[in-house]
Amino acid sequence: MSFSATVRGTRSDAPDVAGLHRAAARVLLTNWTGSSTVPSRTLYPHQWSWDSAFIALGLRHLSPRRAQRELETLLGAQWDDGRLPHIVFDTATPADAYFPGPRFWRAGPYPGVRTSGIVQPPVHALAAWEVFRADPAEAGRRGFLTRAYPRLAAWHRYLGTRRDLGGRGLAAIVHPWESGMDNSPCWDGPLARVEPVPPSRFRRRDLDHAASADRPTDLDYGRYVRLASDYRDHGYDDAATPHAFAVEDPAFNALLVLSELALARVADAVGADPAPHRKRAEEVTAALLDLLWDAPSGLFLCRDLVGGGLIREYGVAGLVPLAVPGLPVAADLLRTAAGERFGLGRVHMVPSYDLTGHAFEPARYWRGPSWFNISRLVHLGLLEHGETARADALRASMLRAAARSGFAEYVDPLTGEGHGSTGFAWTAATVLDLLARG
To answer: 54-88 as b/e, with b when 16 or more CB fall inside 10 Å?
Structure first.
């Protein structure tokens, strides 16, 4: 693929910073419900777990107290086993506004709070620490960290015990949605053994708000429904469920490392022992390197716990560990990021899948498009490892893409065209964080 011939508009005048800040703030204010922020007012009318963590990182620059409230609302829906559910349903929104909705999941920590039964990547402790730093006095007055710490610690314990399905120190996901990168080609192999639920047995609501060409296929959705219903029918018991899908994902575990390091800082601030969290971060980092690093490809790969072995699909999840401090293979990851698979600096932001891969689709959900939250994580990784010029270029690319697309959910990495929902909350939050921190 010749990027110079294919990519359009990767370099142009920077957007108006003041106008972009006002527009991003408007998105978050519009999407605020009074206790949390919906990803979008159309396609995603509830609270999503890792969305709220990314949203809080941007919201803290507008209102640290509201950012605290964002995370507190999510933590308030925590289950007794420590899991943070990937959706907290808004009881004021019609039950059939989103599928799968509360009637499908039949789940929640206590009466009056309805949630899904699966989880999403653990960005929450990292978000909590940064939100605290935005206004320590207000956070201290409200007891924000004191109340958040035991819940965050329980969340991490859940991942380190019940979700260590491989028994070697990494948390496993049991549904593609738990990765946050729902429709990645990395899941195609493991999903192929899942018997799909026929489309006639469910009604997708996502296609009411987004083009079918941008969304997962009915076949994929049928498999998602099968996995979720099997987990539900086994009481969301990780040990008792005969998982047809169980994968160790490098992005999920890299974010666990970052959040354990942040939780060590939280522990220190509230008078708890930070050492166990630092130790856990070291252990997960070692397991990532031992189990998921693939030297020939210069990338971390996902590992299939059911079928066995590494999944040889090259997704952006394998670049996310770049944000881990002191990573010994950072130089290799940087070469991969700048190479033909991801084209860093020559495409719009960071594509979610190998540009040269057999399954690359530039506009379909997680099968190639560039996402703002993931590009921000790669940006943090570049800064962590001293790649200032590349980080600055990626930051500029994100700001341009957000301005041009109306804060789109994601963009085509080759053209910069926006897809999915506009007025997307974590896109706006990422912009505010970039403008505030550089």
So the answer is: bbbbbbbbbbbbbbbbbbbbbbebbbeebbbbbbb
Helix (H) or strand (E) holding 140: helix 136-142
Q: CB–CB of 434/427 below 8 Å? A: no
Sign of CA dihedral 197, 159, 287, 52: positive
Residues 82 and 236: beta-carbon distance below 8 Å: no
- Distance CA(3)–CA(121), nearest Å, equals 32
Q: Measured between alpha carbons, how far is 56 from 320 in angstroms, rounded to an integer?
A: 20
Question: CA-to-CA distance for 163 and 218, rounded, in angstroms?
Answer: 28
Q: Which residues are catalytic?
A: 182, 409
Identify which of 288, 286, 280 has the alpha carbon closest to the alpha carbon of residue 260.
280
pLDDT of residue 213: 73
Q: How far apart are CA 300 and CA 292, in angstroms?
A: 5
Q: Return the structure tokens found at 324.
A: 């881990």
How far apart CA 275 and CA 264 sit, in angstroms, is 7
Asked if the model's pLDDT at residue 11 lies above 70, the reply is no
DSSP per residue, 254-301: HHHHHHHHHHHHHHHHHTS--HHHHHHHHHHHHHHHHHTEETTTTEE-
Name the nearest CA neighbour of 246 among 307, 291, 314: 307
Q: What is the pLDDT of residues 415-426, one digit of tens each?
A: 999 999 999 999
Are residues 357 and 311 in contact, defined by beta-carbon separation less than 8 angstroms? no
In this structure, what token pair is assigned to residue 183?
């429709």
For residue 356, give both structure tokens: 């040269």
- Could you give all domains of the chain from N- to C-terminal order, each with its CATH number? 3-437 (1.50.10.10)
How far apart are the C-alpha atoms of 290 and 26, rounded to whole Å?
45
Q: Under a CB-based contact definition with an 8 Å cutoff, are residues 391 and 9 in contact?
A: no
Cis amide bond preceding 276, omega within 30: no
* Alpha-carbon span 24 to 4, nearest angstrom: 31
pLDDT at 367 over 90: yes
**What amino acid occupies position 314?**
Y
